[in-house]
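Long-time lurker, first post. I've been practising inverse folding by hand and with some scripts of my own, and I keep getting stuck on stretches where the structure tokens seem ambiguous. Below is the full token string for one chain I'm working on. Before anyone asks, I'm not after the true native sequence, just a reasonable design that respects the backbone. If someone could post their per-position residues I'd love to compare against what I wrote down in my notebook.
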């Protein structure tokens, strides 16, 4: 039975189906009205903050460093085909590599980061203050930024609706929002995982490195954007993947999209603008 205090973050309805059970008390629910998938209850907020410590970022700043620089450089080049400078806010900026590259290319940078370790690391690397905490607590001026990016962050936050509303407030009327998120409809990846691992791919485990609180589909992220005052300009596959095996699966999973528009690729990249 659904506890009466739960409401869907997207549509505010209160009818859910349990699609996965984890160690008590955690379970993964799907809203019967809008199909948003999320974890209930959320892990403790302090535990979440402490989860993203030095150990979480160790591979990023060591053995994956060169690959990650290439990935961020590709993201920035794609962005700069549309915009060539201004104020850029990276929400959940991690260790700051994307902002470092943007700064070198003339952007005026700002960043937020929940992890105290990563915020300090990024501040030291960039020589600029990174706000450690939630975006709504940063106090940015209204209509201030030309670009806001969220690279695989929205699935980690406790209130996507609040985040997107705050981004809409601080983004200029002619600004651009770019989001990358995992795709809950990643059918090819799910099949490959079952074949090679011999078990179903789980959506949540409190002991996994990646603690995803929400699982978005193309339809639910577009609904979030519309609700928050954004127009979705483009929704396409995201290619920011480090592991070779996952890259191969993603290359296979994008074929149905380019042949027939079927969105079962691993991750989603969205470009959106204020309405």
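-- Answer (accepted) --
I ran through it position by position. Result:
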């Amino acid at each position: 039975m659904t506890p009466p205090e739960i409401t869907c973050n997207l549509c505010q309805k209160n009818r859910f189906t349990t699609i996965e059970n984890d160690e008590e008390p955690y379970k993964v629910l799907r809203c019967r009205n809008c199909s948003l998938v999320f974890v209930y209850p959320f892990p403790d907020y302090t535990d979440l903050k402490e989860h993203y410590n030095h150990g979480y970022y160790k591979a990023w700043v060591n053995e994956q460093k060169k690959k990650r620089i290439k990935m961020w450089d590709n993201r920035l080049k794609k962005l700069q085909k549309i915009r060539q400078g201004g104020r850029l806010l990276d929400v959940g900026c991690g260790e700051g590599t994307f902002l470092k590259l943007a700064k070198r290319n003339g952007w005026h940078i700002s960043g937020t980061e929940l992890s105290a370790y990563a915020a300090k690391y990024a501040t030291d690397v960039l020589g600029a203050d990174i706000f450690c905490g939630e975006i709504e607590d940063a106090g940015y001026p209204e209509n201030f930024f030309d670009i806001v990016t969220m690279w695989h962050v929205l699935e980690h936050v406790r209130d996507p609706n609040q985040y997107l509303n705050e981004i809409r407030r601080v983004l200029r009327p002619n600004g651009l929002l770019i989001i990358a998120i995992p795709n809950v409809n990643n059918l090819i990846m799910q099949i490959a995982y079952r074949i090679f691992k011999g078990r179903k791919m789980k959506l949540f485990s409190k002991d996994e490195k990646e603690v995803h609180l929400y699982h978005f589909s193309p339809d639910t992220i577009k609904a979030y954007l519309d609700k928050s005052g954004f127009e979705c300009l483009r929704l396409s596959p995201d290619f920011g993947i480090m592991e070779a095996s996952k890259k191969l699966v993603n290359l296979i999973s994008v074929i149905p999209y380019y042949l027939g528009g079927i969105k079962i690729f691993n991750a989603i990249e969205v470009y959106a603008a204020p309405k």
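A couple of notes from the structure itself: The longest strand covers residues 171-182. The radius of gyration is 18 Å. Happy to go over any region you disagree with.
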